[in-house]
Every structure is written in structure tokens, then in C-alpha cells.
Hints:
By secondary structure, the protein is α+β, with helices and mostly antiparallel strands. It has helices at 9-13, 30-46, 57-69, 119-124, 127-136, 201-208, 263-270, 275-280; strands at 48-51, 75-77, 80-81, 102-103, 106-109, 143-144, 154-157, 163-166, 172-179, 183-184, 187-190, 216-218, 225-228, 234-237, 240-241, 246-249, 252-254.
Amino acid sequence: xxxxxxxDPKAHLGDVLNLDRYPIHALDSDAGQxxxxxxxxxxxxxxxxxxxxxxxTEALAAMKAEIEAGYDQIFWSGNSHNPYFSLDDxxxxxxxxxxxxxxxxxxxxxxxxxxxxxxxxxxxxxxxxRQFVGQALRDPDIYCWADPLGRNxxxxxxxxxxxxxxxxxxxYTVSILVQQADEGGVFEYAPDLRNPEDECxxxxxxxxxxxxxxxxxxxxxxxxxxxxxxxxxxxxxxEVVGNRNRxxxxxxxxxxxxxxxxxxxxxxIYGRATPLHWERAALAKIDKLSD
Length: 291
Ligand SMILES: [Fe+2]
């Protein structure tokens, strides 16, 4: 009788992730529990945590090479959008957050371009990774996102580019900084600005109008992993300054295995909507937010 094949997680993921420092393959160990406690502390207090040097340098180099090899397939946006990626709606008064549009200049290397042998695929397909992110978020039943374009893309910003204030369409976003800008390109966020029951438009408007009292900055370095509740915390990336592009990998997890971006949001961010986006647009969402 054949014995079951044993897969050594360190052999499988160890050349991509720094498992000695971040033992996601041994969450029950003392080191695994300490790592989870630290991540949860950040998520509980400010809706965000950062694990320094999570991804190995060689894997970052391969991800950067993947982006630059497919650079001409990046979808670049120069459109304006509001924090919800919805169309203008004159049923709301001028100055309302739904009518607050800022110009976004950034690109996406969509998920359907990412290679099977990419470190990005190794990370995103990893059950250990999904379990770790779920445990850190205290939401063990999270899923990899069904969206074929937005599930694990790279975000790309050139010098001069700016990504305005917005909420994410998915519950949880994981970010890995692949290449840092010379200056700028700083992630800013306002934790828990809305909740599943309430858009909290007054609070959103105050941040859009320049109130910095609830705004935090996260100084990410190359290889750092960030876990973030992007559906409830409004966020932006400040203008990239200098000569280097900013590259960020965005493996995305969600609480629902079926819903995807609505077609309008998909077109604005990823350049198109697929038949799946239209087919699933009618599915009921699991919260009451406009998007
Ligand atoms: Fe976002």
C-alpha cells in the first residue's frame, strides 16, 4: 500500500516567504501564536498590521521581473472616481462623498496575467497563507476572491501618479510592497470610517475635506506584508515622487466565495468587465454598503 505523500511546507514556501521569522506553517507553536498575537493587536486597534520582511528578496525580484516583462499589458487609469467607484449621482447634494471625485493615475497588472510559476501565485494559492490571514483577522472562513481580474493583481504607480481616497469592494486586502518609490507613494488610511450597517457619510466627508485627525500613515518597505480591512477603512496612496515606480502585490481575500466586483467598478479599475462580472452582478451582497 502506498503511504500518503508528505509535503514539507518549508520546502514549498520557504524560498518565497521568510518562514523562520514568520512561521505560518506552525500557527500552534509558541512562535506562531506570538506572530498571530502581534498581527491581531494591529488589526484590533487600527484595522491594519504590518509584518516586516515577510517575503524574500529573491521572490520580490521575480515579481518585479514579472511586472516589467508584462508592462505593456498594464491597464492605466486616468479617470476620476469617488470613494465608492460609483457614477456621479445628483440625488446627493454637491459636496457629498458620493459626489467627491478625484483623478486616479495608476495602473493594474491584472490577475489573469500572472504566471502559474510566479511567487505571487505560490503565495496566493497557499492554503497556509489563507489560514494565516484568516486567523490574524479572526475570520477563519475567508476565501480567495472569485474575481478573475482583481483577485491577486499588482498595483503600479509611476512618478507623478496618485491613488485617491476609496473603500475596497472586498473585505480584506493583503499587500506586499514589491518596489518602493524614491519618495511619496505612502499608504494613508482612516480606520473603521464606515461599518457594514452605516456609510457614516459625515465622517467620510470630513476626511475628504482634509481632516487629518483620524488619518494614519503606514511606512511600508519592500517585502513587508500588510493586512488591512479595506472595506471599512477609507484609504489612499499619496503621489509618487522621484524616478522609481511603486509596485505592490495585492493578494485579496473575502468573506464570500461568489461575489466579484460589480461591472462598473471592474471597468474603472481593471479596464474591463468579464461575463462573470455581469453574471454575478445580481448576486445579493452580504452587507448593506453601496459598494
Ligand atoms: Fe484599496
